[in-house]
Phenylalanine 4-monooxygenase
Amino acid sequence: MFEEAQYFAPVAKREDGSVTVELASSHPGFADAVYRERRNAIAALALNYQPGDPVPHAEYTEEEHQVWALVSRELAAKHQRYAIREFLDATERLGLPKDHIPQLQEVSDRLYPLTGFRYIPAAGLVPLREFYGVLADGYFHSTQYIRHHSVPFYTPEPDIIHEVIGHANTLASDRFAELYRVAGGAARRVESEDALQFVSKVFWFTLEFGVMREASELKAYGAGILSSYGEIEEFRGMDIRPLDLKAMGTTEYDITKYQDVLFEAMSFDQLEDVVGSFWATCDDDSIARLLADG
Ligand code: TIH
Ligand code: FE2
């Protein structure tokens, strides 16, 4: 699930109970009736979901499983070159299928014993405070549909490839899982919308799009880079800035394009010291002070 409101197809539920996902005319699946039918059926599952239920089983077409297989293969090779060690080890630990789309319930069943995280389905946009807040309890809101087969290398719209290959693999790491939890705690603790935005932007520039120095090479750990075999080839050429809370909390970004400003952690320890400690302790006042000076 995406963390901000910019890119989510609206989901409409009719009085007769039918569910329609309103894809924009620019969406690659707009004119594909079969794809739209899948999107509607999958959104209906999430709308009827009650907390505590097992995640409902989603049906995918053979073509959709092929998209997963293609992207998994492309990404596995690129992760070896571009992903940090912590992510590669966690991916190995989770052991997701590569030839078919896993059910979200299966993702949960694998993840929960490792780090206590569970997946719950989301039909569309989840309000920021809810999306982040439940991370503190080990719940991750996830889309269940897959990107259109015509554009497998990148989507501005978070899909199950992003949620699972990007986020679930990351959440199989104890160190990352703790960072997600403290981010959730921060989102619950802060009161003002401005402070929540700040917390959310720090998440964007770290757990979604963070890069890290590892043995003198620049590697990626952000789930948004790690789920796109188009974007992952480009991040080293972007405007790479030092890890800085105020800069991350205030820099604008455009979700519909490859991210051209990225923040580099010098090490995992630095990420935990700077960003983990911030989320673990921040409140409205400390964020206001960060915004006020220099
Ligand atoms: N661009 C990512 C991908 O193609 O996998 C998905 C997203 C991540 C964050 C926002 S959208
Ligand atoms: Fe994400």
In short: The beta strands are 11-13, 19-21, 118-121, 139-142, 211-214, 217-220, 239-242, 261-265.
